[in-house]
Write a structure and sequence with these properties.
By secondary structure, this protein is mainly α. Helices cover 77% and strands 0% of the residues.
C-alpha cells in the first residue's frame, strides 16, 4: 500500500513538472475557447489532470485568466475551475490562491455580457460553497457586486444577480453574515415592481 502511494506521488510530480508547463503553454490559448469541440476536450482533459495532481497545481495556473479580456476564454476558465472544485473541493487552497480566486470570480461575474450566464453563475456558486466560512471576508464584495448588477438596465443581468443570491445565501449565513442576507432581502423587496416576469421570478 505504501509503495502504491509513493508511485502515485511520483506520477503526480512528474505530471506537474513535465506535462503541465507544455500543456498549458500549447493548449490554454484563446482560440481554443472559440471552437466548441476544442473547448469541451480541453476542459475535460484539464479536469482529468486535476484529478491526478490536485486542485492547486491546475487552478493556480489559470485563476488569473478569470480577468482575461476575452469573454469566451474567461467562460472556459470558469467552467474548468467549477468542475475541478466539484471533484476535489477547495480544502487545500492557501490564502493567496483563495484571494486570487475570489478576485477573479468577482471580476468575471461583473464583466460578462453574454446572455448565457449559467457558466458564471454555477462556477461562482460552486466555488463559494466549497470555500464555505473562508468567504466571510468577501461577503461585503459579493453583496456590493450583486446590488450593483441588480441596478443594471439589462433584464438578464438583473435576473442573474437575483439568481446568485440563492447560490450564496447559505454560505453567508454560515459565515455569521446574516446582516448581508437581511440587506439583500430588503433590496429584493424594493424590486418587487420589476417589469419583466422572468426577472421577478428570480
Amino acid at each position: 500500500a505504501a509503495s502504491d502511494v509513493y508511485k502515485r506521488q511520483v506520477e503526480a510530480q512528474y505530471v506537474i513538472d513535465e506535462v503541465l508547463p507544455e500543456f498549458f503553454r500549447q493548449f490554454w490559448v484563446r482560440r481554443n475557447a472559440l471552437d466548441r469541440r476544442n473547448y469541451r476536450q480541453l476542459v475535460e482533459t484539464t479536469v482529468e489532470l486535476a484529478n491526478k495532481v490536485g486542485f492547486v497545481p491546475i487552478v493556480g495556473r489559470i485563476v488569473d485568466d478569470l480577468k482575461d479580456e476575452s469573454e469566451p476564454y474567461r467562460r472556459m476558465v470558469m467552467e474548468t475551475i467549477e468542475k475541478v472544485c466539484q471533484n476535489l473541493g477547495a480544502s487545500d487552497v492557501d490564502p493567496r490562491l483563495e484571494e486570487r480566486l475570489m478576485d477573479g470570480l468577482l471580476t468575471a461575474f461583473q464583466e460578462q455580457t453574454a446572455d448565457d450566464s449559467s457558466v458564471m453563475l454555477n462556477g461562482f456558486g460552486t466555488v463559494v460553497n466549497a470555500l464555505g466560512k473562508r468567504c466571510k471576508v468577501y461577503c461585503d464584495q459579493i453583496t456590493a457586486t450583486i446590488k450593483w448588477r441588480l441596478h443594471n438596465k439589462e433584464a438578464s443581468v438583473r435576473m442573474q444577480a437575483a439568481d446568485l443570491i440563492s447560490r450564496v445565501v447559505v454560505v453567508m449565513m454560515a459565515c455569521g453574515e446574516g446582516n448581508h442576507v437581511d440587506h439583500l432581502g430588503q433590496v429584493l423587496y424594493e424590486y418587487l415592481n420589476e417589469e419583466y416576469p422572468e426577472v421577478l421570478g428570480s
